[in-house]
Write a structure and sequence with these properties.
single chain; 13 helices; about 400 residues; 4-stranded antiparallel β-sheet; binds pyridoxal-5'-phosphate; alpha/beta
Amino acid sequence: MQTLWDDRYALRTYSMKGSAIRELLKFTQMPDVISFAGGMPAPEIFPVEEFKEACIRVLDAHGPEALQYGTTEGYLPLREMISRHTNQYGIKVTADNIMITNGSQQALDLLGKIFINPGDRILVESPTYLGALQAWNTYNAQYITVPSDGDGIQVDKLEMALRAGPKFMYILPNFQNPTGVTIPLERRQKLVELADQYGVPIIEDDPYGQLRFEGKHLPTLEYLDDQLYGNNGNYHGNVVYLSTFSKILAPGIRLAWVVATPEIIQKLVMAKQGADLHTSTFNQIVAYEVSRQGFLDKHIKRIIDVYRERRDIMLEELEKNMPEGVTWTKPSGGLFLWALLPEQCNSQELLKIAVEQKVAFVPGNAFFPNGGGDNTMRLNFSNSQPDMIRIGIKRLAQAIKSSIC
Ligand SMILES: Cc1ncc(COP(=O)(O)O)c(C=O)c1O
């Protein structure tokens, strides 16, 4: 239908693209398709009862406050809880360093809003999280890509990219979305050293760091940057750190947090005021109520047990069923693994055949901002029950075998 709005769209809307992943979510709604496509947690372990009880407690004890407008920075006890959590990892921050957002996705958007001018170049891993590209395309960002391998971003290729003058780097150090890989300590150290040498700040996006199935927690880039400056554990500020309740509690509550200097927080606050005034007071107080008194730690252990089993089953089935020439990552945590098909294969074409065989995945090319990755795919293991993983991987292997590649 034609209206008077038709030729009035802002220029920035022309660089907006719909998320390929959101499009794919429609497959997850088809009952007979086994979907490894979305990035969704296992719904059967959402703490529904705990939320129900917390809602009643919150309404009984803080009803009017929970239903009232709140501060843009977020609910103070929740920010204090997050600052204590951050302090456990050796980074001294206070609630003044923390802002609550509507998911990390909003934090990415707000960071784009305050830092990106049209044409600014952002250094990203290739592949990288599609949602960040989607947020920053709106601000007409350009991307300098640095390839990753089984150990994440290849730091030996970083210097050339840093010389191209990026505004900041965007790095996902733990169980990366989409590849599932983790950057080892040595690379992390080199990365913060180079960032310092070239004067380029870092956005560290860490939704999955707490979902480690085995091995030891690795220090965050934020921590290593503080150490580099011999700051006695005080937050130094060159690394803006993001994490979220989406993968450790529930994504539907849309709660995440940013750790940054009070100066950056102040700018983010102004940007957020223009967007939505603040994150839902009710959700924040309920999430605080659910998380406190040790529940969150217990719940994370449960999630880890469930996802570890699913990861193991997916790896086992891939090993048993995949034809020669297909390889995949073996993540030690998180929600995803990444498969590489033989060079001549196109995973977008393969998806059509796979869907006919009633299985779905995300073709990997969407995660490469400057093109490439046509023979790659992301597989999610958190959202399918073990039997479905077994059947789904067999179907996928069949689709690969029967396709042109
Ligand atoms: C790397 C990364 N960043 C941010 C997000 C957004 O998460 P949220 O639900 O907190 O908006 C996701 C979600 O999958 C993600 O994988």
